[in-house]
Amino acid sequence: MGLNAAPTGERVHIGFFGRRNAGKSSLVNAVTDQEISVVSDTKGTTTDPVNKSMELLPLGPVVIIDTPGFDDEGALGEKRVQRAKRVLNRTDIAVLVADAVSGMGEADRELVRLFEEKEIPYVVVFNKADLIGKIPCKGAENAEPGREPLYVSALTGAGIHALKERLAGMGQTGSRHTPLVEDLVSPSEIVLLVIPIDKAAPRGRLILPQQMTIRGILDADGIPVCVKQDRLKEVLERFGDDPAGRPGLVITDSQVFEEVAAAVPQSIPLTSFSILMARYKGFLNAALEGVKQIDALTDGDTVLISEGCTHHRQCGDIGTAKLPAWIQKRTGKKIRFETSSGTGFPEDLGKYKMVIHCGGCMLNEREMRFRMKCAADQGVPFTNYGTAIAHMKGILDRSTAIVRK
Asked: Which of 261, 276, 291 is the last residue of a domain?
């Protein structure tokens, strides 16, 4: 993905589901006008979900996901079906691809049930319409106006434009309402961003939450000023004591929360990139409630530390080294820690006393809400890195005051 491309977590995720040989892959290729998926007459050609980030006009930046057949069989087939089910957890819009010749099958009806259970907007598409004599008139399926099944042909291109227009309308109705930082910044207000540059920082670039925050400040006509933590006091002194010329907000990387909090006057609001991401992704309230569990941990408890991205773990990594060390110090207990990354979030959380998640910048809002709901349904407290660190450093109230107004 280029520097100007929309991040994966900010794209509308469109999943194509259905039985084997319904033409899912052919339809994906037709909708995207690209050879994204391998097409074959052999059942079960798509064995793993295929993801493609792209611009899909008139909708905009999307992730298209082609999934294995939902009626796959055998031990290996069952694993493929489970992978298809996991895709539902990050699907903003579902496309059920049914065979126009054979009609809806039991697997198709099961998918509809899952869409509705998970409250995923969906459209039913009958592919291979070129093989049937007459397309049923609108209303024949007793669907609400605007939700009638579409009849298309991936082979001839018939109905593809109508499908893209339907997807565009569905994507616009699911737009986000919570801003990242724009509502916290006034025009011409200086916002000081504390960004550690250490061996874990990616060379030549900033991490995604930092990039997104800078863009959000600029969109609000604010003035972002970036500084490393070892230059923070010097920069604050340069601003002087005049409140009119000082930063209106300081946003820091959570790893240096304690150091930054000590340097920034109490009169200046303070928060972190991770806390802003929790609000943006819709789970800040859960994180604030779940963080209390840290002080209830006892010897032998297991904590899951989960990240939405995958990266090479380095010495001093926040998820595998710093957070466990801070928790052990805070509790004085012998805690067990397990980690997950990427899409490998375990749906069965029964063995864990709590989940501490990253900010989720690489995951879309739907998947973050799914993970939070998994924990809530199983009675497992759920929080995130920034909230946990602020709590353990004794600055949670201060660092969340501005986002709880």
From this structure: 276
DSSP, collapsed to helix, strand or coil, labels residue 371 as helix
The pLDDT tens digits for 199-221 are 656 676 788 899 999 999 999 99
pTM over 0.85: no
Q: Distances from the Cα of 395 to the Cαs of 43, 272, 399, in angstroms?
A: 57, 11, 6
Residue 72 one-letter amino acid: D
pLDDT per residue as tens digits for the range 149-168: 999 999 999 999 999 999 98
**DSSP 8-state secondary structure symbol assigned to residue 320:** I
> Residue 118: is it exposed, middle or buried by C-beta count within 10 angstroms (0-12/13-18/19+)?
middle
- Whether the CA torsion 262, 398, 274, 387 is positive or negative: it is positive
Q: What's the pLDDT tens digit per position in 242-278?
A: 777 899 999 999 999 999 999 999 999 999 999 999 9
Helix 385-392, helix 323-331: angle, nearest 10: 40
- In a domain, residue 2? The reply is no
DSSP helix/strand/coil, 382: strand
**Identity of residue 341:** S
Residues whose CB is less than 8 angstroms from the CB of residue 379 and which lie 6 or more positions away in sequence, other chains included = none
For residue 216, give the CATH number of its domain. 3.40.50.11420
The pair of structure tokens assigned to 58 is: 């008139």
